[in-house]
TrEMBL record:
GO terms for cellular component: membrane. Pfam families: Na_H_Exchanger. The lineage of its organism: Bacteria, Candidatus Aerophobota. Keywords: Membrane, Transmembrane, Transmembrane helix. It is found in: Membrane. PANTHER family: CATION_H+ EXCHANGER DOMAIN-CONTAINING PROTEIN, NA(+)/H(+) ANTIPORTER-RELATED. The chain crosses the membrane at residues 33-56, 62-81, 90-109, 140-160, 166-191, 212-231, 237-255, 276-296, 308-331. It is a multi-pass membrane protein. This is Cation:proton antiporter. GO terms for molecular function: antiporter activity. It comes from Aerophobetes bacterium.
Length: 348
């Protein structure tokens, strides 16, 4: 375990995802965006699962990597959009997708991890009932805890005058979420995502007031978290996971591209959205790496197979992140320029 820093960073990451799931944001989702999100996320999930299963012949590894592959990193994408001052249908679509599909990735991981544990734990028999019921219980329990704490904080916020006090209470809520989720065996990521969603919808004014404190305090925490995650890198394993890493990266890119293109086409999205959205969804650092750390927690205590899975996932994600963070922003930039939505490029 990497301790309180890792706990808090994971909580903040999940809380940030939930913040984007406001009713106003969800209402803005066009039919085309909803279709693209579903098809690009599941496209990556299914294609990566099939490719990894064909290579490793281990279903639990394939399911975990498939679930993680569905996440998209918003940070690099948003930076490119801001740099180019891009505006238009493609820009709106990309920003909406990267905000929503991380939530879908957390739900997919909850299902995948529950099924994977059935195959790893000795003496456990697989059944469709347990494969469906256990993740549903985990998701529902996490949502109840997160929403409950979120409502409690929101309704008591009328007596909170200081932005700093409110920020401290939110951080305390995140930590309580983590403790309760671990105690009951629920997903701490989903619990904190639902906490962020509840707070953003019931206390939007106070959330805006602490946005400055939030944005100034989280970068240091994230840097420490990613440094700790990077410490798991085992150079000896790179030669073993090299081909698997390349296959994972290729399958993920292909799944996202084909899924996004198909979703855009069947929903009759604008031509620029159909043509370029899939090329703008390749960055994966952030939630994907956070999920890799969670895999280490969830499976590290499940014998040799669990430890091997945890080590393989974190090292594969660290290895492939280098590739996607080089290729991803470049393709996003190229797509925005080609679509004619890059204002900065047009001015220069």
């Amino acid at each position: 375990r990497t301790g309180i820093i890792s706990d808090l960073a994971l909580g903040f990451i999940a809380f940030g995802i939930g913040e984007e799931l406001t009713i106003s944001n969800l209402r803005k989702l066009r039919k085309s965006i909803a279709a693209i999100v579903v098809f690009e996320a599941f496209g990556a999930f299914f294609l990566v699962t099939l490719v990894v299963l064909a290579i490793t012949h281990r279903l639990y590894e394939a399911l975990i990597l498939g679930a993680i592959s569905s996440a998209t990193a918003p940070a690099a994408t948003v930076m490119v959009i801001r740099e180019l001052k891009a505006k238009g249908d493609l820009t709106i679509t990309i920003l909406s997708i990267v905000a929503i599909d991380d939530a879908l990735a957390l739900i997919l991981y909850a299902f995948a991890s529950s099924i994977a544990k059935i195959f790893i734990l000795p003496g456990m028999n697989f059944s469709i009932f347990s494969a469906i019921l256990e993740p549903v219980e985990e998701i529902f329990g996490a949502l109840v805890i997160g929403c409950g704490i979120g409502l409690l904080i929101s309704f008591s916020s009328r007596w909170i005058r200081s932005s700093v006090d409110f920020f401290v209470i939110v951080v305390a809520g995140i930590l309580i979420n983590i403790g309760l989720s671990n105690s009951f065996g629920f997903s701490e990521l989903l619990a904190n995502m639902s906490l962020g969603m509840t707070m953003a919808n019931f206390s939007p004014r106070l959330m805006r007031r602490i946005s400055g404190i939030w944005s100034s305090s989280t970068p240091v925490l994230y840097i420490m978290f990613f440094c700790l995650a990077g410490a798991h890198l085992n150079v000896k394993l790179i030669s073993q996971i090299g081909w698997l890493g390349l296959a994972y990266t290729g399958a993920r890119m292909m799944g996202k591209f084909l899924g996004a293109s198909f979703g855009a086409k069947i929903s009759k999205a604008p031509r620029s959205v159909q043509k370029y959205t899939g090329l703008s969804l390749f960055p994966q650092v952030g939630v994907a790496l956070a999920l890799a750390v969670v895999v280490g927690r969830d499976f590290g205590g499940y014998g040799i197979q669990g430890k091997s899975l945890a080590s393989m996932v974190i090292n594969l994600l660290l290895f492939t992140t280098v590739i996607t963070e080089i290729i991803g922003p470049y393709l996003t930039r190229w797509s925005l320029i080609k679509s004619g939505e890059a204002i900065q490029e047009a001015e220069s």
